[in-house]
Amino acid sequence: MVIIIAEAGVNHNGSLELAKKLIDEAKFAGADFIKFQTFITELNISKSAKKADYQEVSTGANESQFDMVKKLELSFNDFIELKNYCDEIGIDFLSTGFDKPSIDFLDSLNPPFYKIPSGEITNKPYLEYIASKGKDIVISTGMANLNEIELALQVIENKGISRDRVTVLHCNTEYPTPMDDVNLFAMNHIAEALSVKVGYSDHTKGIEIPIAAVALGACVIEKHFTLDRNLPGPDHAASLEPNELKNMVDAIRNVESAISGNGIKEPSNSELKNIKIVRKSLHYNSDLNEGHILTPNDLSILRPGSGISPMDIDLVLGKKLLNSVKNGSLVSYTDFL
Hints:
Layout: E1 3-9, H1 16-29, E2 33-38, H2 53-59, H3 65-70, H4 76-89, E3 92-97, H5 100-108, E4 113-116, H6 124-132, E5 136-140, H7 146-158, E6 166-171, H8 185-194, E7 197-202, H9 208-215, E8 220-224, H10 242-258, H11 275-278, E9 281-284, E10 299-302
Parallel strand pairs: 1-2, 1-8, 2-3, 4-5, 5-6, 6-7, 7-8
Antiparallel strand pairs: 9-10
């Protein structure tokens, strides 16, 4: 079953109330996980760090990246409250830890796996620390090339996490990602070249690309969502709104079901009953007497398909009738044997 991660990220805008509403919407949409971001700003961003272009568009150029992110930081106690709320309503809690104290805190919540963000794929000490926790890993690969992904996998493997316990998400770190930059087949290239399970973390507008990724074999889908794209903050504009998130989840489940067959082309259980109704068979198109030699002009090809198949017409032509037949009646082998 495809794992669907509803990425709330920092779209709570630093508000526990908004965070809980995001949890409600992720649960309603049918996502498997809601994921946040846990960090101590001072351990991750220097005060001289510039904003990305998309962040300047969404939040303005007057404040620094540090100040923008600091306003979005939740405390460890906040995350305990959110984890408890997730348990209460029945959706799995997940968060990406960006620094050692945050990772240690999240480890105390016993997550089923760790999610490594794209920006840390070249951070060897970070990768080693995540791997030291002994959990399965999902890693995003925005901005990375194949060699960088392989090097990250080697770091993780050297710390005892085998490759079969890692899922690599193809990703593009532009918000929103232009459609012609998605390069979705790169997901399959990663799978083939690196012998790993793959998925897709999406930053495009809309829901089409994650659905296509599932059809191509993604086993994990991650997608940002928000309560309202018009809210202030860096990631809202490139996020789904709740009704879109639900539509995406429903569509993924439908695609997942549609590609779950055995791959053999044969009639399905649901269509067997329609074979005789929809297909055609040979019928007489006039009253014919005993002894008549059947020609093509004596036959019509009509529904239902409960008689002789038109594919077997050559077995009928030239046969002599053993008895008279009525116009419109089904041709039967007993008529001329």
